[in-house]
Specification:
It is built from 8 helices and 12 strands. It is an alpha+beta fold and about 300 residues long. Strand 5 and strand 6 form a beta hairpin. Helix 2 packs parallel to helix 3 and helix 4 packs parallel to helix 5. It is globular.
């Protein structure tokens, strides 16, 4: 290799390192979110009504190993899980060990009255610093709960029309609303969402926080035609499910969903504000019918 060729090869390696570094910075400034009802083994039916997956360690262990494999492969900035079997130490340790080793900070919250399952939120430390963590207990039918995380971007963002950089703050909520066994429970589900938004407003006032992005994740157990959907849209939230499928608020789009998918799906809502600096959002969402896809 001539001196000129060695020089050109060295310059190419430097350019490649520079572009790789820029890709890393871009990736770390692009926020993704996965929300997933993983179907607790204590609820997953096997061959008959009285048989549950929790009775067969090999089944629930293998299924949850594959769920974690998928989560790690997606490498989301934020992971919000529902129906995590928090009553089983081995399963909890599995998630803590593997997600923790991948630099996620984990927060768990069991449903009230020892229901056995609960919520798990994991935030990747490359993307966010967790400033505060709160737990919200609804104390109503179904023993439902919610988690609130106040986070700050680990990487600074350049403000528009300014040379200064800021660490963008955001609020993340993870929840699992009551299953609507009949229409009379719709008001309970609506009240649960109202409590969440009230809690967010009170938290922002308590800490004197200005407008900021808010991400509501969870299993909403509802459809586009439901009151929860309409209420969240009225408050300025946008459904990731609608964005991914290019759905509008029209009645025509509301009827596009298959009946099986109108219930039992996890998705997230986001509320961005016209602030001088806003967190870039590359939204990836696993919208799943309660973990019932084959794994």
């Amino acid at each position: 290799m001539t001196k000129k060729q060695r020089s050109e090869a060295g310059a190419k390696r430097r350019r490649d390192r520079h572009h790789h570094h820029r890709r890393q910075l871009r990736d770390e400034r692009c926020v993704s979110c996965t929300t997933f009802n993983i179907l607790a083994p204590i609820y997953k039916r096997m061959d008959n009504e009285n048989c549950r997956e929790s009775q067969y360690r090999a089944y629930w262990f293998s299924r949850n190993e594959k769920i974690i494999d998928r989560l790690l492969a997606d490498h989301s900035s934020i992971i919000c899980l529902q129906e995590v079997w928090l009553g089983n130490d081995e399963l909890v340790d599995m998630y803590q060990k593997r997600l923790g080793d991948a630099n996620y900070m984990l927060f768990k919250l069991a449903r009230t009255n020892n229901r056995g399952d609960g919520l798990l939120t994991a935030v990747h430390s490359n993307y966010f610093n967790v400033l505060d963590y709160r737990e919200l207990l609804f104390n109503d039918i179904g023993d439902r709960v919610a988690q609130l995380l106040h986070v700050e971007s680990a990487m600074p963002f350049l403000q528009n029309r300014s040379t200064s950089c800021v660490h963008q703050q955001s609020l993340i909520v993870n929840t699992h609303l009551l299953f609507p066994h009949d229409h009379s429970l719709s008001i309970v589900r609506l009240r649960q969402v109202y409590k969440i938004l009230q809690y967010i407003e009170a938290y922002q006032e308590e800490h004197k926080l200005g407008p900021m992005p808010i991400i509501l994740c969870g299993d909403w157990n509802g459809s586009k035609r439901g009151q929860v959907y309409k209420f969240l849209r009225s408050q300025g939230f946008v459904s990731s499910y609608d964005t991914a499928h290019q759905y509008s608020d029209s009645e025509e789009d509301a009827h596009k969903e298959a009946p099986e998918d109108q219930l039992e799906r996890s998705c997230f809502w986001y509320h961005q504000v016209p602030a001088p600096s806003c967190i870039p959002f590359c939204g990836e969402c696993i919208c799943t019918p309660e973990g019932r896809q084959p794994l």
